[in-house]
Design a protein that fits this description.
single chain, about 140 residues, about 10% strand
Length: about 140
Protein backbone atom coordinates (compact mmCIF):
# COMPACT_ATOMS: atom_id res chain seq x y z
CA UNK A 1 0.00 0.00 0.00
CA UNK A 2 2.84 2.37 0.86
CA UNK A 3 4.43 1.69 -2.54
CA UNK A 4 1.16 2.37 -4.29
CA UNK A 5 0.78 5.68 -2.46
CA UNK A 6 4.36 6.65 -3.35
CA UNK A 7 3.77 5.78 -7.00
CA UNK A 8 0.59 7.85 -7.00
CA UNK A 9 2.38 10.86 -5.49
CA UNK A 10 5.22 10.63 -8.02
CA UNK A 11 2.80 10.40 -10.94
CA UNK A 12 0.68 13.24 -9.59
CA UNK A 13 3.75 15.47 -9.33
CA UNK A 14 4.70 14.91 -12.98
CA UNK A 15 3.72 17.70 -15.37
CA UNK A 16 0.88 17.02 -17.75
CA UNK A 17 2.90 18.28 -20.68
CA UNK A 18 5.85 16.50 -22.23
CA UNK A 19 8.22 18.22 -19.83
CA UNK A 20 11.58 19.71 -20.73
CA UNK A 21 12.30 17.25 -23.56
CA UNK A 22 9.12 18.24 -25.39
CA UNK A 23 9.68 21.97 -24.73
CA UNK A 24 13.27 21.65 -25.97
CA UNK A 25 11.91 20.01 -29.13
CA UNK A 26 9.50 22.91 -29.57
CA UNK A 27 12.32 25.45 -29.08
CA UNK A 28 14.53 23.52 -31.50
CA UNK A 29 11.68 23.59 -34.01
CA UNK A 30 11.55 27.39 -33.73
CA UNK A 31 15.31 27.65 -34.18
CA UNK A 32 15.06 25.41 -37.23
CA UNK A 33 12.35 27.66 -38.66
CA UNK A 34 14.60 30.71 -38.16
CA UNK A 35 17.49 28.92 -39.86
CA UNK A 36 15.31 28.41 -42.94
CA UNK A 37 14.15 32.03 -43.25
CA UNK A 38 14.53 33.43 -46.75
CA UNK A 39 15.81 36.75 -45.48
CA UNK A 40 17.54 38.25 -42.47
CA UNK A 41 16.99 38.55 -38.75
CA UNK A 42 17.21 42.19 -37.67
CA UNK A 43 18.63 42.76 -34.21
CA UNK A 44 19.31 46.29 -32.91
CA UNK A 45 19.03 47.65 -36.45
CA UNK A 46 21.62 45.25 -37.88
CA UNK A 47 20.72 42.45 -40.29
CA UNK A 48 22.03 38.99 -39.43
CA UNK A 49 22.03 35.78 -41.43
CA UNK A 50 19.57 33.19 -40.14
CA UNK A 51 22.42 30.94 -38.93
CA UNK A 52 23.89 33.84 -36.92
CA UNK A 53 20.46 34.59 -35.42
CA UNK A 54 20.10 30.95 -34.37
CA UNK A 55 23.57 30.99 -32.76
CA UNK A 56 22.69 34.19 -30.89
CA UNK A 57 19.39 32.81 -29.59
CA UNK A 58 21.06 29.53 -28.58
CA UNK A 59 23.63 31.57 -26.63
CA UNK A 60 20.85 33.54 -24.92
CA UNK A 61 19.03 30.30 -24.03
CA UNK A 62 22.19 28.75 -22.59
CA UNK A 63 22.96 31.84 -20.53
CA UNK A 64 19.37 32.00 -19.28
CA UNK A 65 19.40 28.28 -18.44
CA UNK A 66 22.64 28.68 -16.50
CA UNK A 67 21.51 31.80 -14.66
CA UNK A 68 20.83 31.49 -10.95
CA UNK A 69 17.85 33.85 -11.12
CA UNK A 70 16.10 32.25 -14.12
CA UNK A 71 13.52 29.49 -13.78
CA UNK A 72 14.78 25.93 -13.65
CA UNK A 73 15.26 24.37 -17.06
CA UNK A 74 12.24 22.11 -16.48
CA UNK A 75 10.03 25.19 -16.13
CA UNK A 76 10.98 26.70 -19.50
CA UNK A 77 8.47 26.54 -22.33
CA UNK A 78 8.70 27.48 -25.99
CA UNK A 79 6.37 30.39 -25.24
CA UNK A 80 8.76 31.63 -22.54
CA UNK A 81 11.63 31.30 -25.01
CA UNK A 82 9.76 33.52 -27.44
CA UNK A 83 8.71 36.11 -24.83
CA UNK A 84 11.91 36.29 -22.77
CA UNK A 85 14.65 35.65 -25.32
CA UNK A 86 13.59 35.71 -28.96
CA UNK A 87 11.38 38.81 -29.15
CA UNK A 88 13.63 41.70 -28.27
CA UNK A 89 17.12 42.78 -27.37
CA UNK A 90 17.81 42.29 -23.69
CA UNK A 91 20.04 45.38 -23.81
CA UNK A 92 18.03 47.90 -25.81
CA UNK A 93 14.55 46.33 -25.59
CA UNK A 94 14.25 46.95 -29.35
CA UNK A 95 12.01 44.30 -30.92
CA UNK A 96 13.64 41.75 -33.19
CA UNK A 97 12.33 41.69 -36.76
CA UNK A 98 12.54 39.33 -39.68
CA UNK A 99 12.99 40.94 -43.08
CA UNK A 100 12.25 38.58 -45.93
CA UNK A 101 13.98 38.81 -49.30
CA UNK A 102 10.69 39.94 -50.87
CA UNK A 103 10.90 43.12 -48.74
CA UNK A 104 8.22 42.16 -46.21
CA UNK A 105 9.19 42.72 -42.57
CA UNK A 106 7.51 41.18 -39.54
CA UNK A 107 7.89 41.30 -35.80
CA UNK A 108 9.94 38.22 -34.77
CA UNK A 109 7.65 37.56 -31.79
CA UNK A 110 4.54 37.39 -33.94
CA UNK A 111 6.26 35.27 -36.57
CA UNK A 112 7.60 32.81 -33.98
CA UNK A 113 4.20 32.43 -32.32
CA UNK A 114 2.71 31.76 -35.74
CA UNK A 115 5.40 29.17 -36.51
CA UNK A 116 4.79 27.45 -33.19
CA UNK A 117 1.07 27.26 -33.93
CA UNK A 118 1.86 25.60 -37.28
CA UNK A 119 4.03 22.92 -35.65
CA UNK A 120 2.52 19.46 -35.87
CA UNK A 121 1.70 17.96 -32.47
CA UNK A 122 4.26 15.53 -31.05
CA UNK A 123 3.99 11.94 -32.15
CA UNK A 124 1.62 12.84 -34.95
CA UNK A 125 1.92 11.29 -38.32
CA UNK A 126 1.07 13.23 -41.38
CA UNK A 127 -0.79 11.02 -43.76
CA UNK A 128 -0.75 11.74 -47.43
CA UNK A 129 -3.79 10.41 -49.20
CA UNK A 130 -2.86 7.86 -51.78
CA UNK A 131 -5.06 7.30 -54.80
CA UNK A 132 -6.02 3.64 -54.91
CA UNK A 133 -4.93 1.89 -58.07
CA UNK A 134 -7.56 1.66 -60.76
CA UNK A 135 -9.14 -1.76 -61.00
CA UNK A 136 -9.69 -2.94 -64.54
CA UNK A 137 -12.78 -5.01 -65.28
Amino acid sequence: MKRLLTLFLVLAAMPLSGGWDEEKNRIDYLLQQISQVDGVFVRNGTAHKPADAVAHLEMKLKRASDSWFAPDREEWTAEMFIEKLASESSLTKEPYRIRFNDGQSVNARDWLINQLMKRPPPHSTISIPVQPPAISP
